[in-house]
Structure formats: structure tokens, C-alpha cells
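User: Could you walk me through two proteins back to back? I'd like the raw sequence and the C-alpha cells for each, with a short line separating them so I can tell where one ends and the next begins.

Assistant: Of course. Protein one, sequence then structure:
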Amino acid sequence: MVAEVRGDYPTESAAINAVMVRLGIGSRETLRKWVRQDQIGSGQRPGTTTEESEQIRR
């Protein structure tokens, strides 16, 4: 959802805040982490994917 509305706001932070309010999420940081993990999973940002984390845990 943040990616969908990103173009409507001057910064990603503003888009995150707008979505947070719209969805009633109490913590901006929670939504920011979800966005970052999605970016990692889709290859837009370096890092450990959710799948890789699962493999490490096993």
C-alpha cells in the first residue's frame, strides 16, 4: 500500500505516515520495518530476505 501511494507524497516517510493512519497501525516503526522487508524481499534493497532468515533459523 505504501508503494501504491508513494507518488502522492513528497517522501516515503510521509507515505508511511498516511498509510499508518489509514490502517490504524499504532506504530510508525512497525510499518516502516514491513516496508523495508518487502523491499529486501523484492530485491530493491540489500539484506536478508524472510526466506533466508527462515533457513538460518532451521
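----
Protein two, same layout:
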Amino acid sequence: MTGKTVLVVGDSWSASIGQGMSEVGASRNTVVNAGLGGCGILLPVGKETPEACRKWPTRWPSYLQKYKPDAILLTVGFWDVTPQRLAGDKEAHDLTSPAHETAFRDRLNQAISLLTERNTPLYLMTSQQAGHPKYRSSALVMNRVLREASAKHPGVRLLDLRGQLCNDDGCPQVLAGTQVYDPTEHPTKPARARLANWALNAMFTKDGA
């Protein structure tokens, strides 16, 4: 692929995969990496949410207008599966709470509406946290909501990140001879290169998967 522009938004996993896209393809393409560590889309209340994380409803449309991307990647598979305190909550809950599942679905629909306003293809990544015992139940809810959204909205496609990182034995630290995670639990350089190539092929080749 050459001459393409990809906009990457979402959390630090988005940022990491966006970095991989730059490393494997930026010499021939433009990668706008707007992934932010610590940022999901649920917009919980409280000081634990960085101010920058609250601005996606206005920032993302401005990125579309400025960069006119050919494809967009959105990943929010870590922060939004963790327990959070939304408006009206006295305690934090995860997506197994019906109210939090509804809130995530509403925010996701808002994000999809914003990001597809110019009919740009949007790619959503599943949460790899479904392989983590602590977050599995919440991540499975997220992945179901993501599947439902990708089936409902034209121009939205689901990329199974979990399927790229996990197998029948779980989500190992070493996969196909490659160390998957660095000390921060993000992809190592070889792993993010593989994930970046996989995502870019899915976006811009007819037989990409």
C-alpha cells in the first residue's frame, strides 16, 4: 500500500499499534497516531481521568477534517473493561454491570457516529483482556458489544486482536517464538510490527484478515 492515511485513536494499545504502523509503513504512507495512554471512551467521573481523555468527542472530528484519513483504527480494550465510576455511581463497576454495558454501548455508538461521518472505514479491535482472569468477564461483554456494533453499522469492521494474541492455551507471553509483551504489558517491537502489518493488510488488501 502507498499514499494512504490512517488515523489511530483510543488508548495506549492503539498508540502502540499506531507506532508499529509508523515503523512498518510510514515511509510510503501517513500514520496519524492519536492514541492516548489511560484513555477509554466511557468518560468516568473523578480526577482519575486525565483531562485529555475527556476531549475525544471534539478532538476526533477535528482530526477527520484536518487529515482526511482513508481508514481509522479505534482500540479501547483495556481501560474501559476495568472498574470505573460513572456519573451517579457511589462505587466503581465494570461492564458486567448492565448500566455500564449500556453506557459503553452509548459511547461506542457516539464514537462510531463521529468517526464515520465522512464515510471513512472504521476498524474496531477486540479486547485482549478476555484472556486475563481478573478482567475476562468484563472484556467478554466489551467484545460482544463490539461485535454487535460492527454488524449493525455499515463501514465498521471488527479486528480480532484477541485472536492474534491468544490460542487454546490462553494468551501466552511468547507466541510463535516472539516475546509478545514488554514490561509495561504493551506489545514488544516485533509484536507490534506483526499486529500493525495485520491491521494494515485488513484495511487495504482485498484478502486482508
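Residues 98-115 form the longest helix (18 residues).

Let me know if you want the two compared in more detail.
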